[in-house]
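Quick one, probably user error.
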């Protein structure tokens, strides 16, 4: 990356993704985090450069990592290289019910721990001392893994826990976002011992992460004192789950009356997004062994096809597919294969923003002679429609930089009128998908009839 020779400059230029890897790899333990999880480098820094070597926005050679991890050339499609696309769920009712979507991640970890394939797992969980915040732990028991069940839409330096592997006697599973997976793969490429310590990498889908202010801002908007909160759930209740808090008196308060995905998240990610998420080109963890997310896949009627807690599963490596096949054979999970084209169609907006328009944002940084993420991938050409879409999107995001505008937006979006407009938007989105998807399903039906 041009002009960057210190991790502090990554932070100063709003490029830090706060993955936590720099603190783990520092040989003299001089990197800590401030309250917003940005790395702070001690004055005694030896300038060894290891932190930059594993920084996913400094010099991330995607084509090279593709060859090293997946044994394949980098391909330009929405999902990357995969050898299986499935939907599925855990066959253990308690796990499936507690999970945000299917419980497949939890089931993988519990099964591998039980069989002795792993001795622990790095996962995100609630911070018991500050219940509206989250943290990463190295879980070594089934109880700790089960407690970590559920989605967490906030910044968590998960890879900070990798430092514990220096003294940890066994092997672990790493569960992380795309940027955290990328950073681990960079470390693995320069340190084979790190690769031997991690038995499997499970990547989670991520469109755009949220700053901690998203949670606290919404709580304030609903006039709830954080001192009254005993727990926060990003996907609480029945599927698809909504954002809610549990108060110390045992009662629950819904922070938005719609599911998190189509409701609260759609508002919060517009004004409380992490800056460098806009420059990220990976929304489905392309360098993981197994990538898992929600199957927000709609049918011919425009409604979601896989309700009641399903997971969307992409297997990428031989090891990843073996694990899923073993669990299916042992009847720990149910798997149904789906066509990649169905994934492409329903995830095209996220894919377009991440896989193409992120390069336009990077190009703008280059033109302004500012530091930018280098993925070693050629910048594509853009249509005028794409440029217009990006311009309008960027304009709305710039308005959200103003604290006054943020407060106005939050108070309106989560008011009764705002919720009514959200309801209309959800209905319109369903109608739009019904029109678009009816053509797809008609073509598939006709092609089957002709056979």
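Nope, works fine. Designed sequence:
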């Amino acid at each position: 990356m041009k002009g960057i020779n210190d991790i502090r400059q990554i932070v100063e230029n709003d490029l830090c993704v706060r993955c936590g890897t720099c603190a783990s790899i520092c040989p003299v333990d001089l990197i800590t985090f401030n309250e917003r999880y940005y790395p702070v480098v001690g004055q005694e820094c030896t300038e060894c450069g290891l932190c930059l070597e594993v920084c996913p926005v400094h010099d991330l050679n995607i084509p090279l990592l593709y060859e090293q991890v997946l044994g394949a050339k980098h391909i330009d499609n929405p999902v990357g290289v995969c050898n299986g696309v499935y939907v599925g769920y855990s066959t253990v009712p308690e796990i499936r019910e507690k999970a945000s979507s299917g419980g497949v991640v939890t089931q993988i970890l519990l099964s591998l721990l039980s069989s002795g394939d792993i001795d622990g797992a790095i996962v995100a969980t609630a911070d018991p001392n500050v219940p509206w915040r989250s943290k990463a732990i190295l879980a070594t028991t089934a109880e700790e893994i089960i407690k970590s069940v559920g989605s967490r839409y906030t910044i968590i330096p998960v890879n900070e826990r990798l430092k514990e592997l220096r003294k940890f006697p066994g092997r672990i599973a790493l569960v992380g976002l795309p940027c955290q997976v990328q950073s681990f793969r960079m470390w693995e490429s320069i340190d084979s011992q790190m690769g031997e310590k991690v038995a499997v990498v499970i990547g989670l889908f991520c469109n755009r992460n949220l700053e901690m202010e998203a949670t606290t801002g919404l709580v304030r908007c609903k006039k709830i004192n954080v001192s009254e909160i005993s727990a926060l759930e990003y996907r609480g209740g029945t599927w698809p789950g909504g954002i809610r808090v549990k108060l110390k008196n045992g009662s629950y308060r819904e922070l938005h009356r719609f599911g998190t995905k189509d409701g609260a998240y759609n508002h919060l990610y517009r004004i409380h997004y992490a800056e460098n998420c806009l420059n990220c080109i990976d929304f489905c963890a392309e360098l993981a062994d197994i990538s898992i997310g929600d199957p927000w896949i709609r049918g011919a009627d425009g409604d979601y096809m896989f309700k009641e807690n399903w997971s969307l599963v992409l297997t990428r490596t031989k090891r990843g597919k073996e694990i899923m096949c073993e669990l299916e054979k042992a009847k720990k999970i149910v798997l149904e294969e789906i066509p990649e084209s169905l994934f492409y169609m329903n995830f095209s907006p996220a894919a377009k923003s991440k896989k193409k328009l992120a390069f336009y944002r990077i190009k703008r940084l280059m033109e302004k002679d500012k530091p930018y993420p280098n993925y070693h991938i050629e910048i594509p050409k853009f249509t005028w429609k794409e440029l217009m879409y990006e311009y309008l999107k960027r304009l709305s995001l710039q308005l959200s930089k103003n604290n006054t505008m943020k407060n106005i937006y939050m108070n309106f979006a989560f008011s009764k009128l705002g919720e009514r407009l959200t309801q209309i938007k959800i209905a319109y989105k369903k109608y739009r998908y019904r029109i678009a998807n009816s053509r797809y399903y008609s073509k598939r039906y006709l092609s089957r009839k002709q056979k």
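Residues 62-209+274-349 form one domain.
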